[in-house]
């Protein structure tokens, strides 16, 4: 099951990088949650499945381009912890790189919840591990 969960997360990240927003949440349950409560920017908050299309539309409007570069996939029970770097170019041409760690919770073969953490150690602790 662990490799299957990693492949689900990998496919979600690849869909994100292609800009295929619907593919990212197509199998998500109605109570899907995208938790950016630890974010430092204007996206701060918790979003439900029915809010994701609007969120992605507004988020994408801020960037000329953006992609995620995952560094590793750490399987912890029903969670996959992914430290990554966001590479983005703003509408004014300024390049941005941001490193964060996300925890994907997989249930019944679908992403149930995604939660962003500023620090890898926080994400691992939330998933039940420590560094």
What fold name goes in the CATH topology slot? Answer: Nuclear Transport Factor 2, Chain: A
Number of strands: 7
Number of domains: 1
- In the CATH hierarchy, the architecture is Roll
> What composes the largest sheet?
7 strands, mixed
Question: Beta-strand percentage?
Answer: 35-45%
The helix tally amounts to: 4
Shape: globular
Oligomer: single chain
Question: Separation of termini?
Answer: 23 Å
Return Rg in Å.
Answer: 14 Å
Mean pLDDT across residues: 91
Fraction of helical residues = 25-40%
> Spans with pLDDT under 50 lasting ≥5 residues?
none
CATH class: Alpha Beta
Order of helices and strands: HHEEHEEEEEH
Computed structural class = alpha+beta
Question: What are its keywords?
Answer:
alpha+beta; seven-stranded mixed sheet; about 40% strand; 7 strands; about 130 residues; Nuclear Transport Factor 2, Chain: A
């Amino acid at each position: 099951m662990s490799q299957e969960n990693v492949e689900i997360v990998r496919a979600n990240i690849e869909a994100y990088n292609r800009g295929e927003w619907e593919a990212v949440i197509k199998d998500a349950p109605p109570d899907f949650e995208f938790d950016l409560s630890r974010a430092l920017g204007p996206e701060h908050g918790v979003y439900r499945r029915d809010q994701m299309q609007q969120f992605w539309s507004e988020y994408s409007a801020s960037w000329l381009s953006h992609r995620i570069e995952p560094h590793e996939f750490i399987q912890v029970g029903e969670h996959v912890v992914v430290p990554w770097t966001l590479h983005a170019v703003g509408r004014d041409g300024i390049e941005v790189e941001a490193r964060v760690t996300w925890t994907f919770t997989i249930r019944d073969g679908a992403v149930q919840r995604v939660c962003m953490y500023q620090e890898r150690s926080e994400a691992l602790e939330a998933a039940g591990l420590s560094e």
